[in-house]
Amino acid sequence: MGVARAATVSEAARRSSPAGLLAIAFALLLGFQAIRVFTTHTIWLIGETSSREILAIVVLGGFAAAILAWPLARAIGIQAASLWSLRLLAAGAAVGQISAVPGIDFAAGLVGTIAFGWFLAFLPALGSAAPMALAVALALDLTVRIGFITVDAPFAHHPAAAAVVAVAVAIVALGAPSIGRQAKQLPAWRHAWPLIGLGPGLMAFLILSGNLGQVIVGADIDFRAAGLALAIGAAAGIVWTSALIRARPPRQRVLLGVAAVVLVAGFVLFDTRSAAAGVGAAAIAAALPVMLVPMVWRTGGSNLVAPSVVSVTFGLVVLVVLLFVFYSFYGPGWVLWAAVFGTALLGVGGSLVRSRVVEAERRARRRGWPAPLIVAGLVLLPAAAVAGTAAPPDAGHSESDGLRVVTYNIRQGFGVEGRFDLEAVARTLEDNPADVIALQEVGRGWVISGAADTLTWLSQRLDMPYAYGAAAGDLWGNAVLTRLATRSTVHHFDNPGRIPRGATEVEIDASGQTYTVVNTHLDHADDGGPTREAQTRALLEIWGGRSPTLLVGDLNAEAGARSMQLVFQAGFLDPDAGGPPTFPADGERIDYVLHTPDLSVVEVHRPITAASDHEPVWVKLSPHTLADADPR
After folding, report:
1. Hey, what CATH topology would domain 403-628 get?
2. pLDDT digits (tens, 9 = 90+) for 7-16
3. Which residues, 6+ apart, have CB-to-CB distance to 535 below 8 Å?
4. Model confidence, pTM
């Protein structure tokens, strides 16, 4: 019996060729992308018109459908079920990339998420190829989003993004039959429960080590530094995972213990929000794949399907719960602590309950380091090349004889049809050039909004520095793009029980004149009149009577509202009074560029665009004396 078992494991090890490992890695890559596509389109297609309860049921149902792998495998066998999970993953990715219809994208993401859950349940049946492929997949996913300046390939409307998805789909489709043939046995109950750790592990990746926006904001570094830090960490994770798989049991325990310490210590550093936070992010990226090894590496097995499927499903439910709490309560820190510690504990626990590495399998593995080093290099070099050339935009001066200002609620890059298209936003702003671009609803890495850092992307695309002011959590708020900023200050409103809001104050110097620009986004609720009044009073305190000043943004109130009357009574003027709606869906004019009387209006322009559900407001102003003030 022992000889037969060793022979089986040795045979599986020999079948884990580099091509097969790459196919598994790309399948996992498509799975990560499917999660973002599904959660994002669920929010934008269902969440805006439904209650949180319905939203939670839809998302939970998509992830909990992993349990269907149990009856599927019982009906057609583990091999055939594995094959079908890969086919559905590839099909969902292909359809989603071709489609330009959000509803179809949602369906494709749902299919991909369900298939991904099935594939995760069958992953331990692939032996030592599974953890190695997982480490490579985490690095590949990061590399793709560095290449597209934080935007995931399914959301990047670029030929290169379509090519990336097409290559991944082709590799998975071609490799699916051989991967399916490898899948024979899964862990028994006593060895399967560490698979629950995939839930918090994926949470740690989606929010931390695989989230460029979170690192840029949390560590207060630019895109180049964040990309390099995470790429170095991901490449180190590949080498570290390979070392763990090749090691003898005593050394394995040491490597795993060190990884657990590095993972937790990395998050502690990251949570300091200091200069060391970038190092902490790199440490998390390096240690995370190592901690996932004991969860997915089966060194013994059984013909039972239920243990693996139930454990993975429970882990994905944990992931949904963590995501739901994290975004419902705007990023409470304890959720990330739970994800990191959960990953570390289940990784270490998995190493204690799993069978010892079979000596025959260890001998069957290819000796030497070239393969992991080459893979790590292939991951690191493209990421380093992109990040290294993406220098932060430089400050400059205004080329206009006046000050051009535009305010635009960009809806995190989602147009009126609910399709993510930052290029459309950028073209709108390019067609209406401004010295000061005030943006609201700026997302900087929310998984439920594609995980893109919209501000970094627009800053690079438009070659303009930015000042950012977080409002709801760290990764959603207001921003000002300008080459003229000299100082910026972030303000938060104190309105318990409402969506957190705030204002970004920027001082700029144009043609020897210093201006104050206050960019804000006030409460949006139908019953939010009193809240908007309180927020408006806070804005007036921030202003403090300084001149010249511009108060801009989405004020979520029409000119006759009490909150707006407070602004006008304080002396601010509206150059677009009587203009058409800025929020066409409800026929309301709620976006403004307001100014103090010591500025005169040269021109007002209202671009028409479908890049957001709001229309931008563009105004050109120039300073003048109070005696010549525009009476409007």
Report:
1. Deoxyribonuclease I; Chain A (3.60.10)
2. 344 444 444 5
3. 493, 495, 501, 520, 522, 523, 563
4. 0.92
